[in-house]
User: Which sequence fits this backbone?
């Protein structure tokens, strides 16, 4: 794991954006793995700026998102599809047909999970997977206790995650309790991972991820087994290392 510590989330996001941009410039036909949540917002803002001001070209890029809430249609303001459209896809020249976000309205999630995995494989696998981290150390929606070999599947959200995400829904009650998520095993198959974390409330999860034992209780710790992981932090998130 390569850990990069920048003084602010802005500087860290610029650094992360440079890594994504370098890949897209070197390999215009590539597959990116994307994440939602507050953490990657500034990274996406910087990619939009690079597209608008520097002509960064996403026209041949394919994307796969990590996860989606079960039951939310793409038009729901808190769905991850909506999030991606508003915060990235609507502002760059990616072909929306090449953007994939799991469908929270699928009827048979077992079959759907297999199909999503197949789509990733057909696209040649994920070149670079952007990741955030939950305060309990989860990646995507792989909550504590998730198998480190898990694949795309249905997952029940941990109470801590429901609490953390209540800020977007107005109340805990309104947060969906189920999600469809890439598994830890799926994520580990991407060729490179770029984990971002900002703020003091992520410091413990980051310390456990980077310096703790590899454990299903902190699914991000499985990244220690991956050959190419870059962790980009601000000083607050790095404060317990
Ligand atoms: C959710 C998402 C994760 C994300 C996490 C942290 O649980 N499924 O992919 O990393 O939230 O979100 P935030 O960046 O808002 O702290």
Assistant:
């Amino acid at each position: 794991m390569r850990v990069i510590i920048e003084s602010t989330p802005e500087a860290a996001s610029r650094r992360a954006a440079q890594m994504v941009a370098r890949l897209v410039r070197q390999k215009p036909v590539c597959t990116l793995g994307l994440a939602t949540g507050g953490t990657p917002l500034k990274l996406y803002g910087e990619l939009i700026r690079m597209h608008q001001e520097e002509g960064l070209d996403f026209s041949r890029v394919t994307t796969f998102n990590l996860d989606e809430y079960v039951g939310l249609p793409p038009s729901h303001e808190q769905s991850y599809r909506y999030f991606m459209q508003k915060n990235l896809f609507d502002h760059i020249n990616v072909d929306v047909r090449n953007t994939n976000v799991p469908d929270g309205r699928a009827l048979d999630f077992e079959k759907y999970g297999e199909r999503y995995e197949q789509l990733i494989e057909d696209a040649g696998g994920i070149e670079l997977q952007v990741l955030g981290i939950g305060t309990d150390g989860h990646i995507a929606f792989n909550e504590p206790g998730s198998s480190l070999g898990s694949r795309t599947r249905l997952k029940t959200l941990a109470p801590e995650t429901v609490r953390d995400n209540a800020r977007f829904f107005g109340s805990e009650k309104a947060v969906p309790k189920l999600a469809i998520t890439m598994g830890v095993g799926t994520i580990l198959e991407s060729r490179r991972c770029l984990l971002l974390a900002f703020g003091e409330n992520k410091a413990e999860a980051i310390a456990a991820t980077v310096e703790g034992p590899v454990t299903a209780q902190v699914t991000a710790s499985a990244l220690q087994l991956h050959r190419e992981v870059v962790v980009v932090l601000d000083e607050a998130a790095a404060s317990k290392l």
Notes: The two ends are 13 Å apart (CA to CA). Strands lie at 2-6, 31-34, 62-65, 67-69, 99-100, 128-131, 153-156, 178-181, 192-197, 229-234.
